[in-house]
From TrEMBL:
It comes from the Bacteria. Pfam families: HupF_HypC. It comes from Dichotomicrobium thermohalophilum. This is Hydrogenase maturation protein HypC. One of its GO terms (biological process) is protein maturation. Belongs to the HupF/HypC family. One of its GO terms (molecular function) is carbon dioxide binding.
Amino acid sequence: MCLAIPMRVVEVDGLNATCEAKGVERTVSLFMMQHETVAPGDMVMVHVGYALQKMTEAEARSTWELYDQILEQEDAPRA
């Protein structure tokens, strides 16, 4: 299964952006979104180092809520 991670754009430098999620910063390629305007504060879905699309703050929050639920299940003791 492949997952894309919602990240907030912190800084844009050409076709690269510094993005942050849950306190972790990464350099992300904007190559796949080169025909869109991406600016600091935008939320993007990131997969294997590439921003794939913009998303709203609500979509990002909802996605992180689902991921957090998955992680809670992984940490739960098994009967």
